């Protein structure tokens, strides 16, 4: 019983953090509307790449976010697959939790609305995706290709 309450508390915290993230993203979008991406984030560079010549596990993430926000899903996947993976999980979690809250308000004694629950597998999947992305990009770099 205690584990179930801990899961509910964790999901409530994740939901609140998700709302804060959405508000922050909206503020950045309004503030930066019409401003070129490079002016919003001037001088972005990867210190790991600059020092070693290798890509870090996060290399391509900023460009992947930009591509995703511009509706270029396949390019976002190519640049950094963790970005669309995280966005899909975020949308599924926040959407289902919001619908559950609305459903409960409309039908307080009715059937429960199904929601996406937190699973450790989501995190392990993200870490595996991160490691695979890093290995493939640096493998291509080693073979003389430029993946980014």
In short:
With 148 residues, the protein is mainly α. The protein contains 7 helices and no strands.
Describe this structure in words.
The protein has 148 residues and is mainly α. It has a domain at 44-142. Helix content is 70%, strand content 0%. The radius of gyration is 19 Å and the shape is globular.
Calculate Rg over CA atoms: 19 Å
Q: Given the structure, what is the number of helices?
A: 7
Question: Which structural class is indicated by helix and strand composition?
Answer: mainly alpha
Main sheet makeup: none
Q: What portion of the residues fall into strands of 2 or more residues?
A: under 5%
Summary keywords:
148 residues, mainly alpha
Task: Describe how the helices and strands are arranged.
Elements lengths: L1 H30 L5 H4 L6 H6 L8 H9 L3 H7 L2 H25 L13 H23 L6
Helix pairs in contact: 4-5, 6-7
């Amino acid at each position: 019983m205690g584990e179930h309450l801990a899961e509910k508390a964790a999901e409530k915290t994740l939901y609140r953090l998700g709302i804060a993230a959405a508000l922050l993203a909206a503020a950045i979008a309004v503030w930066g509307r019409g401003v070129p991406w490079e002016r919003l984030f001037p001088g972005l560079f990867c210190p790991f790449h600059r020092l070693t010549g290798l890509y870090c596990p996060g290399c391509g993430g900023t460009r992947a976010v930009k591509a995703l926000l511009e509706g270029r899903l396949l390019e976002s996947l190519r640049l950094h697959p963790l970005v669309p993976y995280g966005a899909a999980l975020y949308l599924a979690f926040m959407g289902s939790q919001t619908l559950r809250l609305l459903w409960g308000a409309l039908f307080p004694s009715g059937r429960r609305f199904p929601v996406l629950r937190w699973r450790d597998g989501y995190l392990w999947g993200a870490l595996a995706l991160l490691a695979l992305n890093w290995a493939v990009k640096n493998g291509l770099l080693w073979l003389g290709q430029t993946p980014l």
